[in-house]
Amino acid sequence: MHLAGRQADERLIRGCLTGDEESWRGLLARYTRFVGAIVRRILANRGLPHGTGEVEEETAEFFGDLCLHVEVTLGGYRRDGAFRAYLAVLAANHARRKAVRLAKDLRRPDLPAEGPPVAGTVWAAEDAGEVRATLAECNSGERLLFELLFTDGAPPDQVASLLGITRDALYVRKHRLLRKVRALFDERSAGRGRSPSDGGPGGPRGRG
Predict the structure, then answer these.
(1) CB of 26 within 8 A of CB of 15?
(2) Of 28, 96, 102, 129, whose CB neighbour count within 10 A is largest?
(3) Cα separation of 195 and 6, whole Å?
(4) What is the CATH number of domain 125-198?
């Protein structure tokens, strides 16, 4: 069943990349509800309107962008993992960017993802910029995972469901990511003459 699903995804992707309308309809039929659920969760986590109308509008906008930039979006899928997980990353990033714009429109300056992570791991406020610079060295999937868990504070079960993985797999990814972020943070801190014990992901105020 898993192999059949991957083969179906491959056929749809190939068709979409060649502009086949039937493939686009198939992609929409297969993944509209999945993407809509991701959009709803992220808008709800940010305290933003997430009714049926808002979710349908944002889901349609996501697929519109997907089609408009198909060579970058679908063309960027490298077949090194499930397409469902790849699409989840694209959809979550789209929804998070839209949530930031909506928050600004609603004059909610506390919501944009520019502040320091606040859940699960604690960093000193003065380290927030350094942590963001460190995250810039991670790949898009790692940044999304970090933002969902530590910036948005989404529950692990919800993040695992959003990414299409088990909770156990989520914990493995989480701890692997934190080790990477701590190592990168310490490298940057050492280059600036600071010790990891000053704080940050590897210091006494961090917990993983």
Answers:
(1) yes
(2) 96
(3) 47
(4) 1.10.10.10
Nearest to 201 by CA among 124, 147, 143: 124
Residues 87-143: tens digit of each pLDDT: 999 999 888 888 887 777 665 334 334 444 434 444 444 456 777 788 888 888 888
Q: Is 184 exposed, middle or buried (0-12, 13-18, 19+ CB in 10 A)?
A: buried
Domain 2-105 CATH (choose: 3.40.50.300, 1.10.1740.10, 3.40.50.2020, 2.60.40.2000): 1.10.1740.10
